Structure formats: structure tokens, C-alpha cells
């Protein structure tokens, strides 16, 4: 290995990667620390996924040696996160990480221990950098979950390697930084997978057909129909019908006829077209409600969609492992193991017709068809984020693509997906709303794409038996199919965990419990007369908090030791809510966080309404002694009834 490249173990027998005499400094041209939930939980998951028998490369750190210290050119977000992680684990680090000209960042790094201990009296909170404080809180939360195995985590952390790469002397750092931030994307696993699957096909025209379908599916923006571009929409209509919304065929020959027989155009345009007065670029956006322009954002990225589709394929074709005791697919949806997942299916998979390894060509054809059909179902029946006009505020959406106009003048528009019985045609039915609410409850409960198994289950249900469930009245039950996923999770991870009628999981209570309860409360209210919660929407409320605090602010009221973790005393809020929330009394929270509460979880709204003094008893005392228990019994009643728990 070059002398400019050093292999760094995060932790080892001789200390950790920050036990050095050289200081790492983040220069001012680098942005401030900005990792949030998604990146930090992914970091924890990546470490937990490390195999016991191998080291794991987690990335590189590009540095330039300047005046006896390392100036970080690339990799500062990961470097800072690892520094925070070690401190959250209680591992002492030398103060070798600093930010140039960012006093708040440096002050926060030097006071991590006090922040973890919540010794606010010893800290000047005005000097705390919010981004780093948020990172500390997220990591601390992840490391204190019930299922977190510290011993196993530390063993895996010892296998993590970072390569520190020094740029040569006299390198123009400004130019280097510019190149690093404008360089093309590196070859990803899904690019390698595409080439591998195409290599199974012997005919060049079939390889081209495979690539066209793959490329259309790989763009997760908008709807897949809009990614097939050809003269007069010939390819699009051959695959999806004249209205662009029919299920793609399940026949390889039909695709060969539809695509190979026509000219598939790229998204580029000829100069003679560009200079035309009325030239317009076709895109995958469209309209709803007349002139409202919309765009759509997928809830997962393409590598994860490939893993969902692989599981759909395995289910449809009954693929099993040739070794009966081995699993053909992993439960976890790990994009870093994408190639391994497909290689296992191809190498070890067997179906009723024999070993997949003996018919790789058929597998390539079958999978690409499955990919397109699954993507069509995903677009139509799995929620997206919808953005109107230029708004940055999206909303949960379940829409289907339709067309208006004739022949070459056809344009896409979007209306609610239908969940109606045969013969009915309405796009504003209640089923659409319940489907949106139930799926968004699942989406915000399972924030990591690695555990979004609810998507797989819904896609399998939609795909089974040649998609029979979308061809008959069974589609009216789609919201119940999604709800049963939530019910199973609440039963397994809450009711079966809590014994002897004591529901005191505290901050480890699964988020799906709160979100499914909110769904039930919303649905009951929707069917009632008052309509108190018609404005409620599911958002990423990722922090379970105590309404009556575990640690009252500076002893201003008495601590509650024996029931503070009870379900009735818990709520779920957005993690970015002021950290003071956790230590305030119930009545103080009610008055201070009015705006958050009125837009928050329905359970939280109810708790706030119940926080009232009773006679001479202050609201906090009455809540602790009686009100919380009545609230808990009522909320558990809703859950038990829905989950069929005696």
C-alpha cells in the first residue's frame, strides 16, 4: 500500500482512530455538519451488518497535510459522525477534530459528555451548534434502544476500516475539491447487476430490449410509462395500451414486438427540433385538477426496488434454495448485498422446472418482465410524495396515470387510484383515503429502507396469480391488507412483548404502535360526527417521549419512578422539537408547544386535552395519579379491539 494511504481501524487494541498526534481540521470551505436520521441510522445499520469473519471498508478520508495537521478535503461528514459515535459509546477520544473558524462546532465537540448527561447548567447552550447536537441525540437514541447489543456492536466496530488518503504535496486543493464535488457517479452495484443479467442473453437485440426496460424502471421519479419515449408514443402504447394505464404484458415475445419493432428514442433532441418555435420537452410531470402541475417522488431508491422485486419474483415462481435448510433471500433489504442476493437466487435457486443456474437466459427474461410489471403496480398502488407546482411541501399521494388528447398530442394527467368494485368508477372514494393513511402510517414507522417489508408484502399481494386481486373486487380490501401488516407488527412487537398486562416499554415502544393507534383514532373520527381530526396527516415523528418527564427540570416537581414508562404516558413527536420538551411538566408542554401539539399525533392531542387540574390537584399530579391510566386503558382498548386481543 502506498505511503500516502493509511488503513485506519475505528477502534483497536491501541486505541481509536482519533488517538493521534495529528489534528484533523475541517476547513471553512466545507459545509457545516449536516448528517441527520437517515445517514446516522444507516451508519449504525452498516456496522451491525458487518460479517464476523471479515473486515469492512466504510469509506475513504481524503486529507492534505498542512502545517503539521490534516486538512480534510473529502469525507468530513463521516469523520465527524464517527467522532460523535465513539463519544456516544463512552470511548474517550483525543480532541483531534476541529472546525476552522466555527467556534460553536468546536465548543459542542468539547462538551459532548455534558450534553449526553444533560448537564445543562455546565454548558452555555447559546454556544451549542444545533446540527452536531442533533447528531449526538440521534446516535444516543439508537445506542440505547432495547434491542441494541453493545458487545456485538463493539466487536463489529473493531472490524471497520477507513482509508486515509493523503493528496500529494503542492496539490491545488480548491481545484481538487471542485473536482471531487462535480465528478461523475461511481459504478454502483445495480449497474454491475444489469451487465451481469444482460450477459445471460445471447442475442444482442434481446440485450438491447432488456436494457431499455431496465433503464425505464431505474428512473424512480414519476411513473414508469413516461420513461418509454418513442415517435407518436408507439412503444408506450404497445406496452401500456392506448390509455397508457394497462398492466404490461407477461410475454417476452410481446415486448420484442413492441420495442424491437419500433425506434426507442433517447431523451436527447435534434437541433432542428430545438429551434422550432413551439418545441417543448416532454417530461414525466403532469397535471391534476386542471392547471395544477405535479411531480412525484418515490419512497425508495432503485437498488431497494430491485430487492423488493426479487422477493416478488421468488414468491411468484416458488423459488427455493437447493439446500432445504437455507434461505433463498435474506429478510433484510440490504442494498450493499444486492449482488449477493441475486447471485444466490441464480446459483442456488430451484423452481418446479429445475435449477435457475441451468436456465439463466430464462431468468433474465423473466426477471425483467417481473421488474416492469412490479414497477407498474408500485407506481399505481404504493404511496408517493406529490409536489404541486413549485411547492417544496409534499403530501402523500396514491394516483394513477391517465391521458387526455388524441394521437401525438396525448398528455399525461393524474387522478386518484381506484379501489372500487367492478362497474363502479369514482376517483374520490373513501378507499383511496384509507389506503393513503394506512400506507403513510407504515412509511413513517419504518424509516430505514432496509426494513420496509410492508412494501414487499403489498407488491406480492398485488402480483400473485397473474395480478388477480386488481382484476376483481379484492382490490377494495387493499387497505385491510395493509392494515393487517400493521396489526401483525403491533401484536408481535408490543402485545406479545408486554406481559402481565403491564405496557411499559418506554422509549423503546415501536413507532408502529403509535402510528397504528393514530390511524384507528382518525378512522373512528372520520366515521363520526365531530370530524376533529380531519386535518391529521402522518409525518416523520421519530422520537418517543414521556408526557410526564423522567427527569423533571431542576427538581421543580417530583419525579415519577414507578409508572413513567407506561404507554399511557408516552407520545411520539418530531425529533427536531425543542429538547426542553423532555424535561417539562405536562401543563408546561401543553402551553409551550401549542402549535406542535395541534398538528401532532392524535394521541398527543388527546393527552394535552386531558392535562387539566382536578379540584385542588395540579394538572401534573392529577395526570400522574389518575388521568394517564384512564387514557392508557382507552387507547389500549382501541388497539386490542383492532388486533383481536382478549
Written account of the structure:
This protein is an alpha+beta fold. The protein contains 23 helices and 19 strands. α2 packs across α5, α9 packs across α11 and α13 crosses α17.
Share of helical residues = 40-55%
Strand order of the largest sheet: 1-8-5-6-4-7
Low-confidence sequence ranges: 183-187, 262-284
Question: What sort of overall outline do the alpha carbons produce when their principal axes are compared?
Answer: globular
> First CA to last CA: what distance?
64 Å
Strand content: 5-15%
Number of strands: 19
Give the radius of gyration: 28 Å
Mean pLDDT: 87
- Give the class from helix and strand content and strand pairing: alpha+beta
Supply the number of helical segments: 23
Biggest beta-sheet profile? 6 strands, mixed
Could you give a short description of this structure?
This protein is α+β, with helices and mostly antiparallel strands and 646 residues long. Helix content is 43%, strand content 13%. The protein contains 23 helices and 19 strands.
Present the secondary structure layout.
Blueprint: E1 5-9, E2 11-12, E3 15-16, E4 23-26, H1 37-48, E5 56-66, E6 69-74, H2 76-88, E7 97-99, H3 103-110, H4 112-116, H5 130-143, H6 150-157, E8 160-166, H7 173-182, H8 189-199, H9 204-218, H10 234-240, H11 252-260, H12 271-274, E9 286-288, E10 292-297, H13 302-316, E11 320-321, H14 338-348, E12 349-351, E13 354-355, H15 360-381, E14 384-388, E15 395-397, E16 399-404, E17 411-416, H16 430-445, H17 453-467, H18 478-495, H19 511-526, E18 543-546, E19 570-573, H20 586-592, H21 594-598, H22 602-610, H23 619-643
Parallel strand pairs: 4-6, 4-7, 5-8
Antiparallel strand pairs: 1-8, 2-3, 5-6, 9-10, 10-14, 11-12, 12-13, 14-15, 16-17, 18-19
